[in-house]
Amino acid sequence: MPMSSRPRRSALYVPGSNRRALDKVRTIPVDVLIFDLEDSVAANEKDRAREWVATVVAAMAGGRREIVVRVNGLDTPWIARDIAVMVAVKPDAVLIPKVGRTDDIRRARSAFAAAQVPKTLSLWAMIETPAAILNAAAIAAIAAMPAPPVTGFVLGTNDLIAELGAPTRPGRAALVPHLSQALLAARAHNLAILDGTFNDLDDRKGLRTECQQGRDMGFDGKTIIHPTQAPVANEVFAPDAEEIAWARQVVAAFAAPDNSGLEVMRLSGRMVERLHERAARRTLEMAEAVAAKDALDREEQKLQRRRTLAAP
Questions:
Q1: pTM of this prediction exceeds 0.85
Q2: CATH class name, domain 10-236
Q3: Among 16, 51, 124, 191, which residue is least crowded by beta carbons within 10 Å?
Q4: Domain residue spans in the chain?
Q5: Nearest CA to 37 among 52, 55, 23?
Q6: CA 224 to CA 195: how far, in whole Å?
Q7: pLDDT by residue (tens digit) across 124-165?
Q8: What does the pLDDT look like over 41-71, one tens digit per residue?
Q9: pLDDT on residue 298
């Protein structure tokens, strides 16, 4: 099945109890906003955070950014209210934390059914425990079933590495096999999949290296914890000029009348097949989507600067 051409290069976690952060999200140039009601929100702030997030999501839903809300865990006292409120404000997806087995997807779907969630709202699943990695294929398989669909995996690498008892080191050698397993499961069932966070806000070189690793592995994008990380993720996970030029060359070659019946050909010293043509078309679709999204981001930032200058 084809992968989506919707850009998900950068996905910013926004703490639901941080009013300053919530007020700024409208102009941050990211592809996905993940409003968090779980880990970043203290127990005594859950109700207030839910109210604040609902207000912001209601104002932003249906815009050019993909809006996701990470609710509290299925075993917490807040989950039913979280889902009920989010149904009313219509984000693109609800992200369920600590999914470790297929039964968690069934429970989440039951909670959705109880809240009469519309079909346009999908589920995403946090993959952040050893159990989730071991069960990734089964989770993805049941996720692919309708009612409602589960359309994305998000890697929670901080939780995963903590449970593994492994050190956090450049190159993520301890995590690579587990990341690969989650990727295989997601791709086998046509799910989007986002890489985990990079925690050192001052290490831009390390961030770029880890983003490049994630992209080379096949992730759609990177979850980030600060707006300053967005430009790197956006750049690395977008098709570059060389990829776009090659994609155009491949598409043009197969479109030539003399090649219409060919399934394989030699092109600039390489052997290319129809599967490469399909991949090239996806690259061009993604490049077009990224260019359109970035143009809208630039226009919004210009408008915001003009509003700021005009303010008394």
A1: yes
A2: alpha beta
A3: 51
A4: 10-236, 241-310
A5: 52
A6: 9
A7: 999 999 999 999 999 999 877 767 788 999 999 999 999 999
A8: 999 999 999 999 999 999 998 888 999 999 9
A9: 85
Tokens encoding 153:
């995996």
Q: Dig out the tokens for 1 from the structure.
A: 């099945």
